[in-house]
Amino acid sequence: MGGGIRATTPRPTQTMRPQPNPDFDAWVNAYAGRARSAGIAPQVVDRALSGAGFLPDVIARDRRQTEFTRTLEDYLAIAASDERITAGRAALARHGGTLRAIEGRYGVPTEVLTAIWGLESRYGTEKGDIPAISALATLAFDGRRGEFFESQLTAALRILERGDTSYTNLRGSWAGAMGHTQFIPTTYQAYAVDFTGNGRRDIWADDPTDALASAANYLSRMGWQTGVPWGQEVRLPDGFNTGLAGRGSTRSDWAGLGVRAVSGSLTGASASLILPDGPRGPAFLVTRNFGVILRYNNSELYGLGIGHLSDRLRGGGPIQGNFQPDANGLRLGDRKELQERLTRAGFDTQGTDGVIGPNSQAAIRAYQSTRGLPVTGQPSRTLLERLRRGA
Hints:
Strand content: under 5%
Oligomer: single chain
Distance between the termini: 48 Å
Helix content: 40-55%
Mean pLDDT: 94
Structural class: mainly alpha
Number of helices: 16
Radius of gyration: 23 Å
Shape: globular
Low-confidence stretches: 6-14
Largest sheet: 4 strands, antiparallel
Strand order of the largest sheet: 4-3-6-5
């Protein structure tokens, strides 16, 4: 499927230029024979692969997927940012009739579908513009997950053979996730639907109807239970046994153990307690539907991002629990302040979002070097206090 945050930070459109690579060309020629043997029409194979180019930037992105890890506070701040909430409410208003019709057929709430749409492609504004055939062929040729990406490439050719979209429109992310809801080709083959009834399962069109219905069909087929919430934020009583936490332990008597809902009433559904930010951080009860969301992207942070954003789109409030500091002892606000103070001091961090990436690390190193400090490039509370003093 897609990948969420990955999809919760802006993904600027970038033209990836193919580079000459004789070994890649030889691999494509060999693969073309395998595709024809798999029953794909020769004219489809020839036309699709004739335009395939080797994209080294795709391999570079595949290698650096785990560049840095975000805290729960960071993740939710980006997933349910004011901008994303505002845009999501506008999308709900604009496509409300369609979303309600999809919910009526598949049972998945409109806010959950809209949250997935928001995290995966920013409501269709960042669907990805990389030619899928070239990206998938490059990754299959690279070999790190060659068998998987070759299966995706074959599925992409079948999409073209069926006529669901054109050769030029078959575009997506660097890893081959496509459309408003970022389906990979094999997931598309199994779960995409033609909700508009025009004969094509078009998840790439400006009209998001088929993409949203396809996501709902996927969640439904994965076991979504109509009328059951994804979960909710809760408060734990003093002295609560946190050993009961974990998705492996499911029960329906949490109220009897003193667990209380942060807002509204406690769900009566069977649920698990999770503590993604440790025993002192926010606590959540999550139901089977949370596990269904994880079938879209198997990350608890992603699941909480979808759940929390869907709650905010419904009119719910922010998280009430106390987020914990990161490994450097800093909260999101501290890191934003660090970036702001560095930039004002002449060491531009190229943004003040609180995420300490390569630009912020370079700014920290430059500051440390000019001040005669050990050059680590790492944020710290000591560094923040020094900047506050104007040192």
